[in-house]
């Protein structure tokens, strides 16, 4: 008898999903690479990402209840919507939204293969992928506080000689700090992954599933508290000489593994109470058909349409390397100088072009800096937390001028005021959100985006921002009139 050389349904499904993933990677490579960077950081919060991805693949491979041939046209509008959201989040440089779209793309691929009803049968493994995305960072501070409370309470009960100040534990031989890494978010997320997949594959009673997940959450928290407590004891009794005091990432996973082994033994006994459980032994049904190939292909095209269009427009706009600066009449007397903006304390991360003008206006020394971006990406962007608009300046206050609003802050030497705003095409903005929205509105034209920073000296010492604005008013009113083309 001739053997069937056709791929089994599950391998055929995995082939289609893999093709979908590879094509999406080439469409939005930076998003995928950001996930790789996140998951490749050893002993960090989301370093379990690739392991979780393996869990997802295993769950889909073992439990084939979702695997039935029923391509759905709903995958096409969902893919198109995902592409639009990606373009919007890329325009405003919110990487988290781009990353959160990746599980949506996996669900879209399943939708194109097996339809709505069957895709939702695999919803739990797909949803679990969010446990490896940076959406749980808000837990760091409360878990850090909880760890600090538990550990310091244990130390007091033991009578350990220590002075506790916030997260710092002052021992006779040195200081140990309960840092962000001691919050245990990584162990908590890894534990939830284990509990979620174990209950998904081995339990059917809702009450047992909830208990399985709750138990591993408790064990993960307790294991982290035990880890931190033991490390402090090791530091105390070794007089801070033990290598674990400085390198203890692996130590934490050893404790987690011991708790996990106990958890699995207990769960095996709990499974016998799950009379509703019936192992799935179906092989699934999936075959290559004209409808499946058509729906799958159009779904990929629908997702790629917007990102590729924006990329084409960006490539066309980037072919023009020349930035034309048109200064308003008030600044015509300024002269462009060949100096770095950092010399004036102005640090804009990754600006493609820097134009510095200096001179005298109304008897006052004036420096005008225009830092322009031709293209932006994560960490190289106009609105960025690390950007500085003068020496020691991060945040300013909004002041009213004839043209609207400006950011203003006094320079540290109290001999000048810094004023700044942002220019996106012909739109002048002052806040981060409105600037990002301006970039979103201009997404198809891909205009230059600039920070416009003006330093104006005071007559000897500044009296205050509001007072000096009365003197500088006609100068700063010209800032929004700067044109960048």
UniProtKB/TrEMBL annotation:
It is found in: Cell membrane. It holds the Pfam family Exosortase_EpsH. InterPro entries: EpsH-like, Exo/Archaeosortase_dom, Exosortase. The keyword Ubl conjugation does not apply. It is a multi-pass membrane protein. The chain crosses the membrane at residues 7-28, 44-61, 73-89, 95-115, 122-140, 185-203, 210-238, 250-267, 288-310. Keywords: Cell membrane, Hydrolase, Membrane, Protease, Transmembrane, Transmembrane helix. Its main location: membrane. This is Exosortase.
């Amino acid at each position: 008898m001739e053997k069937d050389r056709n791929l089994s349904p599950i391998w055929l499904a995995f082939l289609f999903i893999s093709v979908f993933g590879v094509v999406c990677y080439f469409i939005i490579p930076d998003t995928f690479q950001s996930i790789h960077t996140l998951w490749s950081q050893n002993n960090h919060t989301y370093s379990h990402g690739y392991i979780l991805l393996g869990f997802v693949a295993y769950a889909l491979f073992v439990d084939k209840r979702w695997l039935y041939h029923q391509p759905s046209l709903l995958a096409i509008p969902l893919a198109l919507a995902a592409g639009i959201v990606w373009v919007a989040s890329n325009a405003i440089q919110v990487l988290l939204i781009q990353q959160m779209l990746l599980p949506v793309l996996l669900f879209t691929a399943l939708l194109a293969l097996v339809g709505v009803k069957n895709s939702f049968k695999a919803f739990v493994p797909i949803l679990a992928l969010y446990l490896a995305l940076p959406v749980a960072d808000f837990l760091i501070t409360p878990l850090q506080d909880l760890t600090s409370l538990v550990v310091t309470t244990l130390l007091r009960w033991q009578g350990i000689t220590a002075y506790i100040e916030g997260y710092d534990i002052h021992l006779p031989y040195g200081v140990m700090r309960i840092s962000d890494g001691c919050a245990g978010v990584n162990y908590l997320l890894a534990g939830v992954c284990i509990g979620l997949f174990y209950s998904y594959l081995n339990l059917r009673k809702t009450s047992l599933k909830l208990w399985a997940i709750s138990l591993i959450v408790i064990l993960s928290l307790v294991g982290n508290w035990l880890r931190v407590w033991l490390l402090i004891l090791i530091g105390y009794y070794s007089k801070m000489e033990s290598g674990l005091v400085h390198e203890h990432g692996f130590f934490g996973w050893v404790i987690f593994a011991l708790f996990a082994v106990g958890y699995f033994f207990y769960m095996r006994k709990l499974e016998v109470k799950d009379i509703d459980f019936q192992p799935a032994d179906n092989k699934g049904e999936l075959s290559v058909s004209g409808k499946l190939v058509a729906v799958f292909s159009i779904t990929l095209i629908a997702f790629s349409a917007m990102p590729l269009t924006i990329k084409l427009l960006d490539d066309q706009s980037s072919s023009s390397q020349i930035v034309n600066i048109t200064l308003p009449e008030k600044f015509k007397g300024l002269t462009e100088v060949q100096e770095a903006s950092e010399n004036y304390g102005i640090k804009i991360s990754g600006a493609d072009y820097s134009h510095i003008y200096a001179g005298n206006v109304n008897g006052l020394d004036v420096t005008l800096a225009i830092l322009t971006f031709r293209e932006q990406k994560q960490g190289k962007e106009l609105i960025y937390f690390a950007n500085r608009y003068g020496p020691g300046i991060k945040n300013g206050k909004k002041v009213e001028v004839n043209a609207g609003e400006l950011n203003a802050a006094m320079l540290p030497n109290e001999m000048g005021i810094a004023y700044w705003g942002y220019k996106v095409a012909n739109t002048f903005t002052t806040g981060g959100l409105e600037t990002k929205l301006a970039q979103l509105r201009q997404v198809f034209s891909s205009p230059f985006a600039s920070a416009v920073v003006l330093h104006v000296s005071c007559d000897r010492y500044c009296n205050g921002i509001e007072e000096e604005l009365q003197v500088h008013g006609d100068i700063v009113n010209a800032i929004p009139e700067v044109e960048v083309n």
